[in-house]
Amino acid sequence: MGFIDKNEDGLDNGQTEANEIERTHSLADSAVDAGTVDVAPATASVEIIREERAVIEAPIEAQPVSRRTNYTRRDSLRGEAFDQPEPAAMLTADRLIDSTKRNRPAPESGFRRFLYFVTLKTFNLGDSAKVRARKAIDARIGASLDGRAKFVPVLTRKGGVGKTTVTTLLGMALSLSREDRVIAIDANPDRGTLAERVSKSTRFTVRDVVNRAAAIDGFTDFSTMVSRDITRLDVLASDPDPMLSEAFDEGDYNVVADMAARYYSIVLTDCGTGIVHSVMRPTLQRASGLVIVSGGSVDEARLASETLTWLEANGYGDLVRNSVVALNTATQATQLVKLDEIEQHFKTRVRHVVRIPYDPALAAGSVIKFSSLRKATQEAARELAAIVVDGLVAQG
């Protein structure tokens, strides 16, 4: 007998092949039956995938770049795009000058300067902290102002507290550090003494400016009517005759002020004690800043504070808040008064308070030589000048 080949299930190979063929036909039938089912969802999925692929492969349009025409250095550093070329105003000293140690200016004096030159300019420590502080004050005083003249009245309601002295110190400190012109006008109707604080070089007064205003054709003509100090401060004197001084009114002051505004950047006005005098109104109306002088006694401080109250009540509140009080500590009874309390009071009302120390060169009441003053007095005057200019710059 021949042997029949059987698999593990006990079926011969022929039966196995028959079963496989039958199973294959059954699967085919099932596939055909499945084809009768709706296949739209699968087709839709394919279409969505094609659309997404088309979106991804589509070229991306360049977005328009936001451009500006108003240049600023900060925006330029951020990479901002601008419609126009960079203007020349962007070429500032702060941007272009290399202030690193290699290009630092030579020390001004002392051991630092000696070391700089002895090392053949290879070792530069720069200026000392003291010199840097002085140069910083110089920069504040010398800050540029806009085109129009800035008027700064110096006033108080009590005589003898050093108003004229403070005006002179302020004017000298300004003139020493500024490149433009500074003038101090004596508008005191009670025979002012401002011109006596500098070396007098002319007999002309505010009255002569009023009378000859039409004939003054330039700064050369005007300069003959003022006395110029070695610091470059110009001083226009008041009338020595009390009768003529009293006749100096609002209209006269406006003539003088208009003339001064043509040739000077800062105009200081040494006002009288009569706060209700007719000259006071145009003086305050023109004011860009204000200096109130107070002595160190109880009544002097109270009158200075009442001056601020009067100004606030008459519509000059903004001027008061931007003003500076010069506290003259050289007046009588200063040693008996708590100056810190006076200073604290004024700090609640004004922008700043500066103490003017006692100086024998000021107590004499004669010509003031700025270089002969004590160091503390010079520094106080320079601090006052810097604070005044800070306020003028902030106003714009």
Structural summary, described in words:
The protein is an alpha/beta fold and 396 residues long. The protein has two domains: 77-127, no CATH class; 138-395, P-loop containing nucleotide triphosphate hydrolases (Rossmann fold, 3-Layer(aba) Sandwich). The chain has helices at residues 13-35, 40-57, 73-77, 93-96, 110-118, 129-141, 163-177, 206-211, 219-223, 242-246, 250-263, 280-286, 298-313, 317-321, 339-347, 360-363, 375-395; strands at 67-68, 81-82, 150-155, 182-186, 227-228, 234-236, 266-270, 291-294, 324-328, 352-356. The protein has an eight-stranded mixed beta sheet with strand order 5-6-4-7-3-8-9-10, sandwiched between helices. Strands 1-2 form a two-stranded parallel sheet. 32% of the residues are buried.
Rg over CA atoms, rounded to whole Å, is 43 Å
Write the element-wise H/E pattern from the N-terminal end onward: HHEHEHHHEHEHHEEHHEHEHHEHEHH
CATH topology of the largest domain: Rossmann fold
Helicity level = 40-55%
CATH architecture annotation name of the largest domain = 3-Layer(aba) Sandwich
Shape: globular
How much β-strand is present in the residues? 5-15%
Distance between the termini: 126 Å
Brief summary of the model shown:
Helix content is 45%, strand content 10%. With 396 residues, the chain is of the alpha/beta class.
